[in-house]
Amino acid sequence: MNIFSVIFMNFLGFDIFIFLAAVFNGFLFYMVKLTSDRLKAKMSHTVYVPHFEASRREADEQVSELREEEVLTLRSASDRAYSLFVNITGIFPLLGILGTVVSLLGLVSDMENVTGNFYAALTSTFWGLIFAIVFKFLDGLIAPQIEQNEKSVKLYLDSITNSTSEAAAEDGGNEE
Questions:
Q1: Which residue has better confidence, 173 or 34?
Q2: CA–CA distance, 92 with 150 (Å, rounded to integer)
Q3: What's the confidence (pLDDT) of residue 46?
Q4: Is CB count within 10 Å lower at the N or C end of the chain?
Q5: What is the per-residue pLDDT across 23-61, written as a single tens digit (0 to 9) for each?
Q6: Rounded CA gap, 81 and 76, in Å?
Q7: With helix as H, strand as E and coil as C, how does the chain read?
Q8: Taking a C-beta distance cutoff of 8 angstroms, is the pair 82, 142 a contact?
Q9: Distance CA 118, CA 9 (A)
Q10: In the predicted model, is pLDDT for residue 176 greater than 70?
Q11: pLDDT tens digits for 130-151?
């Protein structure tokens, strides 16, 4: 028996659950990337080092066009999708182990098909580990952007809080 037939032998058995989880997690990764890119595009004007007064005014105008509600909605959508992606990525080794246990339990009731059950146990572990590695790699690619977006949103929210506090202080000073 060649290696490819062994690897795909249990595809219609327990391995199909692992593949379905992988397809769902791939979709989640796409959603994380999409929402993260949108948030990054929105927030790209909040982090700057102005060298000239004109660039400072331009950056202030771009930041003032941002709507706090829209930024928070994008951040929330990105955070939810990323959290779900990371959690599902973490279950792939567990799905592999579960498939192994289910297949080995089949040995108890079907001692005539020892080889088939043993192969099924190994393929479940194989696919669980393969998908865990692939999605962990993808997590490593997207995590820095998620962190940078979080810093940008925090900086933006802090600037709103500071400008609101300054405006309130100026209004309080003008009333006297």
A1: 34
A2: 27
A3: 47
A4: C
A5: 999 999 999 999 999 998 888 764 455 565 556 566 556
A6: 9
A7: CCHHHHHCCCCCCCHHHHHHHHHHHHHHHHHHHHHHHHHHHHHCCCCCCCCCHHHHHHHHHHHHCCCHHHHHHHHHHHHHHHHHHHHHHHHHHHHHHHHHHHHHHHHHHCHHHHHHHHHHHHHHHHHHHHHHHHHHHHHHHHHHHHHHHHHHHHHHHHHHHHHHHHHHHHHHHHHC
A8: yes
A9: 11
A10: no
A11: 999 999 999 999 999 999 999 9
- Alpha-carbon distance of 92 to 167, in angstroms, equals 52
Residue at token pair 């600037």: 159
Of 38, 148, 142, nearest to 84 by C-alpha is: 142
